[in-house]
Backbone:
């Protein structure tokens, strides 16, 4: 089992909650711990409740954890809102110079008042109460406060050394105050041995953006939308160094059409968005499919429908990704399970798009996209660039004029070589209208059927990773099934259930289209009851599995759509209700 | 050197007499005159009769979606700056469904040439009112006459400080060729609106109508196409019925020139593999 500590800071939006959490998380990470952060925030800029959770451990974390040991409360709302997560004996630090905390009665938790604002004032400025809180936290967890200095330096050095010094001063005062007045502790577990590990701190969004760059993407067009915008930020910082272009498009319709234009011209281009923007892209998805133009679309899902809960997580765009757009097109839908896979799969998405000349959708979600975590490096050595079938100038010279067929329907695998604008003897029209081999708009039935068949053939020979992973005992009669970001929490659930004596395996999709039927059937071998765990209300993954693979009597649902990420307890609880009690073998 | 023959395609499917033939000829001729090879030229079109332009032109083409030629064309150009890129479409395509992109393209100023075949009607969908239809136009969707004010493309472009604004007429291909040549040569976004009669569905805005009513500003020695405010007044006074180079600001920097990090060589021709030291630099940002 994971040894860990859950820490959270909460207050009003605009009170610097994020930067408090960020400084604490980065410091713990740099000290050598594994951290996983989760931000709870609302769709407003000031006021409202916001909090930043950090789970720290000496083991790789894939989930923010259900439990809370230390809570820093800048207001009473923070206590009321987060009370239920606290473990017995947990510590609440509240700002005694701002309010007198009221303790809810149903939990054995300790309230400790620390005059955070007052101490901050003594150090120079009331706004540094968050640094005081970090100092207090360091004392609670028995951390050396000097270990925070480099992080504080990085964070504030732009504002001058005086600001760095006074922030450090506030931190040390908080540390001293707690040491002096209280004697409770929640020490962190032993630090892990990080030799031979590239201990990195990244979010899914950053990993996705990095993956794009590594995969050869040099064009991004996007329109701001939570929780996808960070992808654009990262790319904006990096692309100019590598000759790439970023366009803030006027809307998502422009964004995806731009990405298609870049790919048509031969540059790997993508667009990144979230649900509402993804919906706006549906018509162009059809164009990419019909014109056989590669394009990569990243959908960082959030709670829908419509504007829904814009700052909350969900996995409810799956049906749209698999079925969306008018008519029928081949497409590939990847659902990375981890931050490392966000990197690798996004890089790979460009190869798949080029190889199969169709749209590739990379689906993550707010939970994966915006949660920062420690990872043991990125699989940079696994990145390869494969442009798929491009016709060369020499081949074209041999063909001569008017012979090149961009959409030659007779190719057995349905994938005809692409020419790029500028190449001689190959000019053609890429188009959304039905067309013949040369790309000329024609409407006769024979051509229509031949071209439909050609496009449908493409993915028949789809080759990539299996798309499904299995963890745990292969012969287990019970299975937890999920896709994408719930990988971490499902793995923890599997471990808990196993320890409690239930033979469970964990089947997880890292690709939902083309549906990895073979690998899934193999994974389901021996399964009598499976709990499909997904963050939507209608069980979209379960429906897809039933449609593509069957198992009607075997599949049950564990659904969550209240905006919060899956908790371990919920899954374990539902598993106990669903899987028959007791051990069978 | 390419000739008109090199730009020829097998067939054009417009109605005999359609104004779009003149636009096609003018685009091809302008490219020939500038010594461009067909494979260097990309026409990105929207949907409509006008959208067929990408098919008929004879260069590389991207026949995109209704109203979306502009974003697509901008990206083609950004990806490969060595190409000459046209966006082309109709008045419904460009001023109806795609209007937003037009305005933003003027802001952004990517070096493409935008050609609108303005026939004041929806042709391909068989004759509905268009955003440029005059008030009172009787069409299938306005049997009593349209009640909405028409879009004023030139005024719009001038107000938005578009770096190159011209208007031509399919009945005067010679002038149109010159305008398109200048538009191609202009660095940045250039807009050429063309009165391109629909002989099938629009019985009002005909060749005869334009011949009788258009004023050619190119022939006016007193007209200064560098004075934006005067241009606005002149266009308004003539009720838009002008042709010629309306306005040009040759000094306005293009998006490509202004964008930090935009490479000097075409992006498509670069090696996109990250080197070990690139990886090191990026990984350092995650520590
Ligand atoms: C999203 C979408 N909506 C509607 C249509 C139908 N449609 C095709 S062409 C057209 C209008 C074309 O008019 P215009 O742009 O003026 O071109 P013209 O045919 O007159 O050259 C419409 C509405 C479409 N293809 N796509
Ligand atoms: S309907 Fe009008 S616009 Fe379309 S081809 Fe015929 S004449 Fe041209």
Residues:
């Amino acid at each position: 089992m994971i040894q860990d500590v859950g820490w959270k800071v909460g207050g009003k939006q605009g009170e610097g909650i994020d930067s408090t959490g960020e400084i604490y998380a980065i410091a713990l990470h740099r000290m050598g711990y594994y951290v996983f952060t989760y931000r709870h925030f609302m769709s407003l800029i000031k006021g409202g409740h916001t909090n930043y959770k950090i789970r720290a451990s000496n083991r790789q974390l894939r989930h923010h954890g259900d439990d809370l040991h230390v809570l820093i409360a800048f207001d009473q709302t923070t206590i009321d809102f987060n009370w239920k997560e606290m473990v017995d004996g947990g510590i609440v630090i509240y700002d005694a110079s701002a309010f007198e905390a009221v303790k809810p009665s149903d939990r054995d938790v300790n309230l400790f008042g620390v005059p955070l604002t007052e101490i901050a004032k003594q150090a120079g400025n009331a706004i540094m109460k968050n640094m005081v809180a970090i100092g207090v936290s360091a004392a609670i967890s028995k951390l050396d406060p000097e270990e925070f200095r480099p992080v504080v330096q990085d964070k504030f050095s732009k504002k001058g050394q005086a600001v760095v010094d006074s922030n450090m001063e506030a931190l040390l005062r908080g540390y001293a105050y707690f040491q002096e007045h209280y004697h409770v502790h929640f020490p962190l577990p032993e630090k892990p041995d990080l030799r031979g590990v590239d201990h990195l701190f990244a979010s899914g969004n950053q990993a996705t953006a990095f993956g794009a760059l590594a995969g050869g993407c040099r064009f991004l067009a996007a329109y701001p939308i939570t929780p996808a915008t960070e992808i654009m930020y990262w790319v904006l910082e990096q692309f100019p160094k590598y000759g790439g272009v970023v366009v803030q498009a006027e809307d998502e319709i422009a964004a995806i059409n731009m990405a298609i234009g870049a790919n048509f011209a031969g540059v790997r281009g993508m667009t990144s968005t979230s649900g509402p923007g993804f919906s706006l892209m549906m018509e162009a998805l059809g164009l990419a499919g019909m014109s056989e133009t590669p394009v990569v679309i990243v959908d960082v899902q959030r709670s829908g429908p419509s504007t829904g809960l814009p700052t909350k997580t969900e996995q409810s765009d799956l049906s749209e990704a698999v079925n969306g757009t008018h008519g029928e097109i081949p497409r590939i839908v990847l659902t990375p399970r981890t931050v490392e896979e966000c990197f690798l799969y996004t890089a790979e998405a460009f190869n798949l798009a080029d190889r199969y000349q169709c749209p590739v959708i990379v689906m993550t979600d707010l939970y994966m996209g915006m949660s920062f975590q420690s990872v043991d490096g990125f699989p940079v050595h696994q990145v390869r660039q494969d442009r798929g079938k491009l016709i060369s100038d020499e081949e074209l010279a041999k063909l001569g004029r008017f012979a090149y067929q961009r959409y030659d329907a007779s190719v057995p695998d349905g994938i005809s070589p692409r020419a790029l604008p500028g190449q001689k003897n190959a000019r053609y029209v890429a188009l959304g209208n039905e067309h013949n081999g040369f790309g000329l708009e024609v409407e006769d039935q024979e051509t229509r059927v031949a071209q439909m068949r050609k496009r449908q053939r493409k993915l028949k020979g789809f080759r990539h990773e299996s798309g499904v992973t299995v963890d745990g005992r292969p012969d287990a009669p019970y299975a937890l099934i999920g896709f994408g970001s719930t990988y971490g929490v499902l793995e923890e659930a599997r471990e808990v259930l196993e320890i409690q004596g239930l033979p469970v395996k964990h089947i997880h999709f890292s690709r939902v289209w083309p549906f990895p039927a073979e690998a899934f059937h193999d994974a389901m071998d021996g399964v009598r009851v499976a709990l499909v765990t997904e963050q939507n209300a209608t069980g979209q993954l379960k429906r897809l599995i039933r449609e593509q693979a069957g198992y009607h009597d075997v599949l049950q649902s564990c659904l969550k759509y209240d905006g919060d990420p899956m908790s371990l307890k919920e899954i374990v609880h539902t598993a106990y209700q669903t899987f028959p009690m007791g051990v069978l073998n | 050197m390419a000739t008109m023959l090199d730009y020829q395609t097998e067939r054009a499917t417009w109605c005999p007499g359609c104004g779009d033939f003149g636009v096609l000829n003018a685009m091809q001729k302008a490219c020939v005159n500038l010594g461009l090879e067909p494979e260097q030229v990309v026409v990105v079109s929207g949907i409509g009769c006008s959208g067929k332009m990408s098919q008929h032109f004879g260069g590389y083409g991207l026949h995109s979606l209704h109203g979306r030629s502009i974003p697509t064309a901008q990206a083609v150009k950004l990806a490969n700056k060595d190409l000459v890129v046209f966006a082309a479409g109709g008045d419904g395509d460009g001023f109806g469904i795609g209007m937003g992109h037009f305005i933003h393209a003027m802001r952004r100023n990517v070096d493409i040439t935008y050609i609108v075949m303005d026939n004041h009607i929806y042709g391909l969908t068989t004759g509905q009112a268009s955003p440029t239809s005059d008030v009172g136009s009787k069409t299938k969707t306005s049997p009593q006459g349209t009640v909405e004010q028409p879009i004023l493309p030139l005024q719009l472009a001038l107000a938005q400080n578009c770096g190159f604004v011209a208007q031509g007429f399919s009945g005067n291909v010679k002038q149109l060729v010159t305008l398109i040549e200048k538009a191609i040569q202009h660095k940045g976004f250039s807009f050429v609106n063309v009165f391109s009669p629909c002989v099938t569905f629009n019985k009002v805005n005909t060749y005869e109508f334009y011949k009788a009513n258009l004023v050619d500003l190119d022939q006016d020695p007193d007209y200064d196409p560098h004075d934006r405010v005067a241009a606005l007044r002149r266009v308004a006074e003539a009720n838009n019925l002008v042709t010629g180079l309306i306005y040009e600001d040759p000094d306005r920097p293009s998006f490509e020139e202004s964008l930090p990090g935009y490479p000097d060589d075409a992006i498509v021709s670069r090696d996109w593999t990250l080197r070990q030291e690139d990886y090191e630099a990026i990984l350092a940002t995650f520590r």
